Every structure is written in C-alpha cells, then in structure tokens.
Amino acid sequence: MSHKVTLIPGDGIGPEVTQATVRILEATGVKFEWESFQVGADAFEKHGEYIPKDALESIERTCVALKGPVTTPVGGGFSSINVALRQKFELYANFRPIRNLPHIPTRYPDVDLIIVRENTESLYSGLEHEVVPGVVESLKIITEKASTRIARFAFEYARKNQRKKIHAIHKANIMKLSDGLFLRCCRGVAEEYPEITYGEHIVDNTCMQLVMNPYQYDMLVMENLYGDIISDLCAAFVGGLGFVPSANLGDHCAIFEAVHGSAPDIAGKNLANPTALLRSGLLMLRHLGEFDASLQIRNALEKVYRHPEKLTKDIGGQAGTSEFADGVIEEMDKAKATPAAVH
Ligand code: NAI
Q1: Ligand 1 pocket check: which of 124, 262, 269 to mutate, most ligand atoms within 8 Å of Cβ?
Q2: Whose CA is closest to atom 12 on ligand 1?
Q3: Fold annotation for 107-238
Q4: 132 φ, ψ (degrees, to nearest 5)
Q5: pLDDT at 103
Q6: Which of 51, 101, 245, 295 has a CB 3.0–4.6 Å from the CB of 279, allowing a cystine?
Q7: How do beta strands 31-36 and 64-67 pair?
Q8: Could you tell me the distance, in angstroms and rounded to a whole number, from the CA of residue 263 to the centre of ligand 1?
Q9: Closest ligand 1 atom to the C-alpha of 70?
Q10: How far does the centroid of ligand 1 lie from the alpha carbon of residue 169, in Å?
Q11: Could you identify the atom of ligand 1 that is nearest to the CA of residue 277?
C-alpha cells in the first residue's frame, strides 16, 4: 500500500530540507505517492495564485501534507501562507514536542515538553485596519469554541499518553475578556480530567520560569501568539530551530512542518539542517500508522548524532544537508543488514 501525501517544498531552505527528508522517508521502504506543489511568491509568479487551487484540492484529497517553510514578507505584501492553510483546513491544534536528541550539547539535557498552540485565531485572524492615518488596529479574536477545542485536544493527548500536568498560559490579568474566556474554557475542560494536574501561568512569568527550570512543566496549552513565541524559546533548550518538529492537526487533515522558517541567509548553500523537518516526517509516519519506519529513522538519526563530522554546520559539523541525509540512510542500511534484522 502506498500513502498519497501532498508535498509543499516551500522556498528558501525549504526545497533542500524537503528533498533530504523525502529521501530518508523513502529509504524506510514505505511507499509514498507525492503530489508536489509550489506555494508563495514562486507560485504567484508562475500561476498568479499564492496557494494554487490544485494544491488545496490535493490536501483535501490526501488529508496529509508535508510542508517546507515559506517566506512571508514582513510589514506588507501577501498574507502568511501558513496561517491561510491552517485556517482553510481548520488545523486547530499545533502540536510541538520539545525533546533533546542524544549527543547534542544543550543547556538543558532530557527536556520532554509538549506545546499545544491554538492555531486558528487570536491576533493571527488577520483582522487589521488603519483607523485614521497613524493609528492601526489589530483584532484579537478568542472564541469559546476554539478555546474549548484546543483545551480538549491537550487533555485528550495527556490522557492517552500518560502525561501528568497541563499549564494554560495566558495574559488574563491584562486581557481580561479574551484571555479570561480562554482560561474559563481550559478550566471547564480540566474538570473532566481529574487525573491530570492543571495549572495557570501568566505568559511573561512563564518565559522566565522556562529559562530557570523547564522541567517544572509537562504540557503547555495556549493561544496562537504566545504559542508562536514560546515554542521558539523552547526550541533553544534542545539545540535551536533546526531540531523542533510540528504537526498542524484538524479533525480531517494534518500538515507536518518544521518550526523554523525559510532561513534566507543560508538558502541554496547546502547548509540547512534537515532534522526538524525529518522529525516532523516522523510525526507524519506515526499519523499514517507507520510506527516501525518511524522508529527505524529515529534510531538512525540518533546514531548519526554520535558522529560530529556527519552533522551540519549549525551544530558544529562539516556535512552539508544532502551528506547529512546520506549519513542517516547509511545508518538505516547498516541496521537492516544486522543479523537480527535479517531474520
Ligand atoms: P528562520 O527560522 O528562517 O531563521 C532564524 C535563524 O535560524 C537563521 O539564522 C537561520 O539561518 C537559522 N535556521 C533556521 N532553520 C535552520 C535550519 N534548518 N538549519 C540551520 N539553521 C537554521 O526565521 P526568520 O529569519 O525569522 O524567518 C525567515 C522567513 O521564514 C520569514 O519570511 C518568516 O515569515 C518565514 N517563516 C516561515 C515559517 C513556516 O513556513 N512554517 C515559520 C517561521 C518563519
């Protein structure tokens, strides 16, 4: 059986990390039928659309996409493709596990933290206008429906995966109505899960607490903007943006992508670390029920990280993006060739 997956390589370092990831995923022996599409500025130049209709139809059909980063112009230009895709397919839960890979020196060993970010509203609703020249307004939308849905997602995940503790992160001391509603929804859902400890922390304090002692947290649930910022902060615990995967999950579709952006400073130079997208690919494999393949890659990845010379430059190695992928595939081949695997 083969899996139909929509592939969006993105731009900047996107095509490089996507190609590396696809090669490694295919080396497991799992069969994929990739439906590949350009989005963003390149797509607009060629097709006159930032997200071509064919790409949207493909995601509707396959319900699973693997996506590289896409550049969003700052302070003008077209709206974020990422936000548009999340809203279009109601991918309301952004799931970001923050875990160390062995052998990478970081400030904090053995971090195991899960960030659940509401993905469809808050200040990312794109409702901005100029009231009068020199005054602009951005609307923060928080609804009971989306807040309850994301809280339930977090608690359900915790229950199924034996997680012990969830903190809702907020700024309800200032945004009493919007963040107040978010908290009320979280509290309501928390009551249905008495086995999971529930706590609340204000977002600015959370940043400080995280840096002082990330081990005090287990899972964090929060609205869109706080989740965006805090997940980058937490990426630094495990080596930086090159390591953190994410899944955008809805009731019908899922898009898997790295947390990092298109890194224009290193694009096209075979310098990018594909680990984050590859780890997103592992989340995708599990979503597709391919647990053995996911384990195969995870083991190989951990072995590669024992060899500094096989790593990319962002973590002090010598390898390029494609050589890094070769290294992971070599480790997978070696594992397949061991006597235990032959029988
Ligand atoms: P960025 O994540 O692209 O880069 C930040 C820093 O991390 C840069 O120094 C970059 O070289 C480094 N870096 C990022 N990924 C790396 C990797 N895989 N390997 C090695 N080094 C890596 O963030 P930035 O510069 O804020 O954003 C650039 C563009 O990406 C913007 O247009 C932004 O909107 C877009 N973006 C897209 C995302 C997506 O498509 N999901 C997510 C975040 C940003």
Answers
A1: 262
A2: 263
A3: Isopropylmalate Dehydrogenase (3.40.718)
A4: -140, 160
A5: 83
A6: 245
A7: unpaired
A8: 4
A9: 40
A10: 25
A11: 18
pLDDT digits (tens, 9 = 90+) for 35-47: 999 998 888 888 8
- 66-115 pLDDT tens trace: 999 998 877 777 778 888 899 899 999 999 999 999 888 888 999 999 99
Q: What are phi and psi of 206, to 5 degrees?
A: -60, -40
H/E stretch holding 221: strand 219-222
* Mean pLDDT over the full length of the chain: 94
Please provide the CATH number assigned to the domain covering 1-98+239-343.
3.40.718.10
| Ligand 1 in reach of 122 Cβ (< 6 A) | no
* Regions in the chain scoring below 50 on pLDDT: 342-343
266 lines ligand 1 (CB under 6 A): yes
Domain residues of the chain, as ranges?
1-98+239-343, 107-238
In this structure, which amino acid lies at residue 13?
A: I
* Atom 31, ligand 1: residue with shortest CA distance: 71
Both tokens assigned to 244: 């953190």
Asked whether the beta carbons of 325 and 274 are under 8 A apart, the reply is yes
